[in-house]
Inverse folding.
């Protein structure tokens, strides 16, 4: 299975981001990628909710979704749009939704980010994703031509039970499209991704947003980059650094079974009483 990992420096202009994304998807396909993945919020990185409200579309009208479905069909490749920010959540909120698109250009699965990034990571940097986005409540595993895949997004990586559930439902590859902050990315991203790979015996594939994101507003956002691919034994197969662009590599899915035969921890869960502080 040849995978293409797209790393983006998305702006707050969806049209421009679509052009860049399509150019990079095409480049990955020309390099032989059969399954191409893009980061969280491929269509817009913005720190300004008002700007997002007047710029974003519903799923039905979204230009990025429509164009990339057509492109997947044209190139005959699988595409995971790591996520799109869309109108359509409850109480006027946005959705942070992944789309898995098959080589006939149809939507094979969607996933709404479950865990919302509400965090104060320093005196000057805080996030309140739950006030802007409606969270999902459904974990997703689905079949592809290459194997069984599980979907997740960014901050979900901090909730190991989700990954255990995906793996125990049959996932062999789990995607973690992300827009990590620079600080938490540097301090935590690689170790979190490797831990999830080791715990689940899955490939972990994390296409990421990177750099200082171009904006027409006053609110500048920076992300960490370093898109990564980790094998089921926890080895780092790819660290894409900080440049926008593509990385293409081959995944040997037989490594999933091999890792799980060596350490069958996925089958060793036991029931126990929750701890009480006494
Ligand atoms: O709001 C958007 O545009 C899209 N969503 C994001 O960028 C989200 C919420 S702000 N970012 C993360 O989840 C980063 C998590 C992270 O960095 C960590 O867990 O340390």
């Amino acid at each position: 299975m040849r995978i293409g990992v797209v790393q983006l420096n998305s702006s707050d202009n969806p049209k421009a981001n679509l052009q860049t994304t399509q150019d990079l998807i095409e480049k990955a396909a020309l390099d032989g990628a059969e399954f191409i993945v893009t980061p969280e919020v491929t269509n817009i990185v913005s720190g300004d909710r008002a700007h997002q409200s007047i710029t974003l579309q519903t799923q039905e009208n979204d230009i990025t979704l429509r164009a990339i479905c057509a492109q997947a069909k044209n190139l005959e490749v699988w595409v995971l749009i790591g996520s799109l920010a869309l109108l359509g959540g409850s109480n006027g909120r946005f959705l942070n939704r992944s789309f898995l698109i098959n080589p006939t250009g149809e939507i094979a699965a969607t996933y709404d980010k479950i865990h919302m990034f509400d965090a104060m990571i320093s005196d000057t940097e805080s996030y309140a994703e739950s006030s802007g986005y409606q969270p999902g409540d459904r974990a997703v595993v689905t079949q592809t031509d290459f194997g069984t895949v599980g979907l997740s997004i960014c901050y979900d990586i901090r909730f190991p039970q989700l990954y255990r559930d995906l793996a125990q439902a049959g996932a062999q590859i789990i995607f973690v499209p992300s827009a990590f902050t620079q600080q938490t990315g540097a301090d935590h991203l690689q170790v979190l991704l490797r831990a999830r790979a080791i715990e689940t015996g899955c490939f972990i594939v994390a296409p990421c947003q990177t750099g200082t994101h171009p904006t027409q507003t006053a609110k500048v956002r920076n992300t960490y980059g370093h898109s990564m691919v980790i094998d089921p034994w926890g080895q780092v197969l790819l660290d894409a650094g900080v440049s926008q662009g593509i990385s293409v590599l081959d995944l040997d899915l037989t490594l999933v079974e091999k890792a799980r035969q060596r350490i069958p921890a996925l089958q060793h869960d036991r029931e126990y009483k929750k701890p009480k502080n006494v």
About this structure: Residues 40-41, 45, 85, 96, 117, 127, 129, 154-155, 158, 179-181, 184, 188 surround KGT (CB under 6 Å).
